[in-house]
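So, read this over?
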Amino acid sequence: MAKRSLVAAISMALALSACAGSRDHKGFVLDPTLVDSIQAGVDNKESVTRTIGRPTYTSQWDPNDWYYVSRNTAQLAFRDPKVTEQTVLRVKFDAAGNVVSVEKTGKETIAQVDPSGDKTPTLGRKRSFFEELFGNIGTISQPGLPGASQQ
């Protein structure tokens, strides 16, 4: 009997430990002292790189915008992770490579995207399974279209 209760206690402990939460950090580790030391009109790309490192990414529209992204998340068991803290540091440079501005934003800039159902709306005619499967049988390809034979 004691053996059964020991096995049951161990099983219960393992089952409960599977529901434990986890915390995670992703991205750049921001040091507030170093970030506050970056000044517009004083620093340039080289000094920013020496002070806080290379950016997480640069803007695809303007290579003079550098972004440093830091995010902390918490997750319980198998649920989706929730953002507990986020910081996005944007360092903007002028054409000569000098710092123009330093901006910090938080998790208020996170966009929540909710899908609108199980299907993506599409334009055009709705076809049944069999129309999709057998719809091209007997069609004649036109010259110049992909898959058409060139004569």
Remarks:
- Helices lie at 2-17, 32-36, 45-52, 129-134.
- Residues 21-110 form a domain with the Beta-lactamase Inhibitory Protein; Chain:B, domain 1 fold (CATH 3.30.1450).
- The CA atoms of residues 73 and 84 lie 5 Å apart.
- The first helix runs from residue 2 to 17.
